[in-house]
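For the sake of clarity, the format in which proteins appear in this thesis is described at this point. Each number in the token line that follows is a code from a learned vocabulary of backbone shapes. One such record is shown here in full, so that the layout can be seen directly:
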Amino acid sequence: MTKFRSLFVIALLTACTPNAGPSPFYRDTSVPITSVALFDPAQFAGRWDVVASYGMETCGFDVVATKTGVFDLAERGCSEAIEHSVATMTGPGRYTPKGGARKNAEHWVMWVDQTYRTAVIGTVGGEFGMILNRGRDIPSDRLKAAREILDWNGYDLARLVAGPDGG
């Protein structure tokens, strides 16, 4: 009878444990992640809109290359708020903002198209990821390619959320 009571208590406690809900991580970290070896911060400079993302409330970025390996990153929140940060290159296709929503998180540029019109950025841990484009209207071929890059790098495409204009 004592054995039955112990099992009942364990079952009851398990049932009362709150469900943590979906994981805050969007990437299978057992999958290797890649970054663009020949990433050029000068070509990355300019205005970017978030057309799809994981775990972000950012609508875009304005990037100004200030000196070798450093750029000014203005994060445009969807509420119209703007937060400026210095971002430092930390490796090939990798940078770390010193401020903003994802400060001190190393951002990996996993892909950028040949003319720097579309980019895919995320983190090794998969805390967030995003598809950026020069303007909100992204051609279907580049959106498809960006989604394939996320998938290739272990991101869960089912949890990717379109940007404010349906990207």
